[in-house]
Amino acid sequence: MPINIPKHLPAGELLRKEKIFVMEEDRAKTQQIRPLNILVFNLMPEKEKTELQLLRLLGNTPLQVDVTFLNTATYESKNVSKSHLDTFYQTFDEIKHRRYDGLIITGAPVEKMQFEDVGYWKEITDVMDWADQNVTSIMYICWGAQAALYHHFGIGKFELPKKCSGVYSHVITDLTVDLVRGFSDEYVAPHSRHTSVSIDEVRAHPDLRLLSYSDDAGVFIVQSKNNKHIMITGHLEYDATTLSDEYFRDVEKDPENTEVPINYFPNNDPQNAPKNVWRAHSHLLFYNWLNYYVYQETPYEWHFVEENIEYHI
């Protein structure tokens, strides 16, 4: 089934070249089907790259998905044109009257700051509180995951001695949980962050379930026991070259203190092109989320929830 995107979104042409079934809004309106409505709160600086990464994963399932992009109203992005934001993004005030089947809150380049010092922290918490009542399932990525653990569960973050950057091996704590159904006993995934959260605090929290972790990179996948909140501290959505782009960007800024990402470049040589060795698990994670936590849980029409009538897709 197709993924529905705004007309003329630049990512659309790239997705078509990858043979991902893309349908623009005008054609989607003619389909006699109830699509899943997914809201993406994109806080990443290079928004068009993140759009492509997430749309690629959301579009690789049998489900029809209608995507809306959300941007902050309290902070003006510097790495994307205003015309792109005006054309393809909405603000919270414009969508808060609606209900959504799923929400993705991405990472953001503010992880070294205290949460309350982030200029748009109030806006983030307003969206998270609203989502509790108006969204079936929420996925948080990287800083978004840390923000959710802090806001919803009182677990803070701490700064690492050096940046956690590379491709790390992870294990699953319970392969019977639907979110990790089909995962290998061990698998790899990228991380790119300066902060982390305590694995002991996560394990001890009565409302959380630690699903996956790395001996080297720490906490990776955390799920609330009511299945509503899914927190991913790394970047399974990353392309093969994303860590490389970040590495060379950091080398230009601070060559002496920028280390080569762990287990990423072949032979640990930045001149060698990296390979995407996590792609299968990226698609599997998003497929499982959309299927088990969104599609199978969301009401066919949201007003049935308000009338206390159980009516599922």
TrEMBL record:
CDD domains: GATase1_HTS. The record marks 192 as: Important for substrate specificity. It holds the Pfam family HTS. GO terms for molecular function: homoserine O-succinyltransferase activity. The keyword Isomerase does not apply. Its EC number is 2.3.1.31. It comes from the Bacteria. It is an enzyme of class 2 (transferase). Pathway: Amino-acid biosynthesis; L-methionine biosynthesis via de novo pathway; O-acetyl-L-homoserine from L-homoserine: step 1/1. Substrate binds at residues 163, 192, 249. The record marks 111 as: Important for acyl-CoA specificity. It is found in: Cytoplasm. The keyword Glycoprotein does not apply. Keywords: Acyltransferase, Amino-acid biosynthesis, Cytoplasm, Methionine biosynthesis, Transferase. It catalyses: L-homoserine + acetyl-CoA = O-acetyl-L-homoserine + CoA. The active site is at 142 (acyl-thioester intermediate), 235 (proton acceptor), 237. HAMAP family: MetA_acyltransf (MF_00295). Transfers an acetyl group from acetyl-CoA to L-homoserine, forming acetyl-L-homoserine. Belongs to the MetA family. This is Homoserine O-acetyltransferase. The lineage of its organism: Bacteria, Bacillati, Bacillota, Bacilli, Bacillales. The gene is metA.
